[in-house]
């Protein structure tokens, strides 16, 4: 009497539906059906118009298998079997949610209690697998914080001092169904004070003392009852009242490095040490407080000291090593000698007035170094210094040629001598009439003869100063040479010549170019010297000057071979 088919279909996460058809060969009247499903008791059904039944009471994602038979008055049919999984649903709670005893650790910049949380899989997954666990915790009135832990089944929980934290965990399966939360409460004990971001400050007081100051710990965890401090050179902790947030430690040598450690105390214990930045006591000798003092650094063991005359100068020197540490200072006091006037930033101006004269004017020296009672000046084309009295600030200078660029040097004089000279601005004199042409030296070539005798005369003219209309100078026809003068040293000279007879003048002939002999150059220009420095020579202090000058305008030869200087020997007694 076999049946045709039987089928199980999923209704939801807890129910399935069993559907079958009546026997293909009933062999009479089918009296009813009998079925048995997983975890269900045997059930019987009388014949119905529709052969189906809803079977419930299963957990999500549970495999359900059913067998069904039909019977008549004679016998029961063979069994038909069908199986199916219920759909995914919520998993059961994670099991064995526990924590281990907490330990004190530093986390995120402060001391906290660390709890180790752990749990096991839910008894029933509600789908194919557990894909993640979600942790939620709340502390006091704070809002909940949720963390996705992935598939990990443990977690470190950091709890502040004296807090009560409710921690919950739930599972999520691959069908994205969540279990309910399973919870526990973590209660932490109070901790000793924690400095957190609080810092100490160090300050040098003098050559034997340092001041250390601080603020209350960022996380006191309870009422602070006092402080303790221990500094360099001490082996014991000094107790301090809670109101004292600064401490002066003394008894050190000049420029000693001083370190201190501070602890805060409460009813819960004593904090870790807070260290101050290293401070140094001051040097034994202080830096001079002169408001005009100047600080300079040098990698050498010498230094040029520049000072005015008749002043007392104190030099303060200390060494700094590669570690940034300073030595004790050494001092030297000297009194500078008297020196002549120095122009400094003062200037002189030369203004042309005619083709031969100009006015030289100046301002008083910036550093007279005493009473200036006269000045001396020297201008272009002159090697002599001219003195003028101090009750004037200008003087007329003459003797120049027209349209010539000129400048003057001027120096001031006090009772210590002649000061440095400065050069005025340059100017150009007005135009004037030119000077006459100058003569040249040459050797005439042989004059051609006519009818066996010399021509009666020939003339010359000179090239670089003469113009096309210049006159010819006549020379006796019996002479074969002439002397031309008036040139400067080492100058190129050439001459034109021609022969003249009773029949007229011959062609012009140019001589080869010749140079005059070398002569003295013009004087060196712009002689000057800078500010003096005091040096020691054979245990005497003298002033040292750097003298400079410029090459002459005109060399009157190939080049300048050397310069010769002459100056009086300074008195050393």
Automatic annotation (TrEMBL):
Q: Where is the Fibronectin type-III domain?
A: 196-285, 344-434
Q: Which InterPro entries match?
A: FN3_dom, FN3_sf, Ig-like_fold
Annotated PROSITE patterns: FN3 (PS50853)
Give coiled-coil spans as residue ranges: none
Its transmembrane ranges are: none
Q: Which SUPFAM superfamilies match?
A: Fibronectin type III (SSF49265)
Q: What is this protein called?
A: Fibronectin type-III domain-containing protein
Biological source species: Bugula neritina (Brown bryozoan)
Organism placement in taxonomy:
Eukaryota, Metazoa, Spiralia, Lophotrochozoa, Bryozoa
């Amino acid at each position: 009497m076999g049946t045709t088919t039987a089928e199980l279909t999923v209704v939801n996460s807890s129910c399935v539906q069993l559907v079958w058809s009546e026997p293909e060969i009933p062999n009479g009247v089918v009296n009813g059906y009998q079925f048995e499903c997983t975890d269900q008791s045997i059930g019987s059904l009388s014949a119905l118009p529709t052969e189906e039944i809803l079977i419930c009471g299963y957990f999500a994602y549970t495999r359900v298998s059913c067998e069904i038979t039909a019977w008549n008055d004679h016998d029961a049919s063979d069994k038909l079997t069908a199986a199916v999984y219920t759909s995914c649903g919520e998993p059961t709670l994670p099991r064995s949610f526990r924590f281990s005893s907490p330990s004190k650790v530093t986390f995120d910049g402060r001391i906290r209690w660390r709890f180790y949380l752990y749990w096991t899989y839910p008894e029933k997954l509600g789908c194919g697998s557990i894909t993640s666990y979600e942790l939620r915790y709340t502390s006091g009135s704070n809002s909940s914080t949720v963390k996705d832990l992935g598939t990990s089944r443990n977690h470190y929980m950091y709890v502040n001092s004296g807090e009560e934290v409710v921690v919950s965990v739930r599972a999520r399966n691959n069908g994205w169904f969540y279990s309910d939360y399973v919870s526990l409460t973590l209660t932490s004990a109070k901790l000793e004070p924690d400095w957190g971001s609080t810092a100490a400050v160090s300050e040098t007081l003098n050559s034997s003392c340092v001041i250390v100051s601080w603020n209350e710990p960022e996380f006191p965890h309870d009422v602070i009852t006092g402080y303790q401090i221990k500094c360099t050179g001490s082996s014991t902790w000094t107790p301090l009242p809670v109101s004292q947030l600064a401490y002066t430690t003394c008894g050190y040598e000049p420029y000693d490095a001083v370190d201190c450690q501070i602890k805060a105390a409460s009813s819960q214990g004593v904090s870790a040490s807070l260290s101050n930045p290293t401070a140094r006591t001051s040097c034994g000798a202080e830096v001079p407080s002169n408001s005009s003092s100047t600080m300079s650094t040098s990698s050498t063991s010498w230094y040029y000291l520049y000072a005015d005359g008749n002043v007392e100068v104190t030099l303060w020197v200390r060494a700094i090593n590669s570690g940034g540490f300073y030595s004790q200072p050494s001092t030297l006091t000297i009194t500078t000698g008297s020196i002549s006037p120095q122009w400094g930033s003062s200037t002189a101006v030369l203004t042309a007035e005619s083709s031969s004269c100009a006015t030289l004017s100046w301002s008083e020296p910036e550093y007279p170094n005493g009473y200036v009672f006269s000045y001396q000046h020297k201008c272009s084309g002159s090697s002599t210094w001219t003195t003028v009295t101090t009750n004037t600030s200008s003087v007329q200078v003459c003797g120049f040629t027209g349209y010539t660029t000129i400048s003057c040097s001027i120096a001031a004089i006090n009772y210590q001598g002649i000061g440095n000279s400065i050069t005025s601005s340059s100017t150009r004199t007005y135009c004037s009439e030119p000077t006459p042409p100058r003569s040249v030296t040459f050797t005439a070539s042989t004059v051609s003869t006519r009818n066996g005798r010399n021509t009666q005369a020939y003339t010359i003219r000179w090239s670089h100063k003469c113009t096309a209309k210049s006159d010819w100078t006549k020379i006796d026809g019996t002479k074969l040479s002439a002397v031309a003068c008036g040139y400067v040293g080492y100058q190129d000279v050439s001459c034109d010549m021609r022969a003249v007879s009773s029949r007229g003048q011959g062609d012009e002939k140019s001589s080869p170019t010749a140079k005059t002999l070398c002569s003295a150059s013009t004087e060196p220009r712009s002689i000057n010297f800078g500010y003096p420095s005091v040096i020691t020579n054979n245990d005497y202090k003298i002033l040292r000057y750097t003298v400079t000058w410029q090459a002459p305008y005109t060399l009157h030869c190939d080049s300048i071979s050397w310069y010769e200087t002459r100056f009086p020997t300074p008195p050393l007694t």
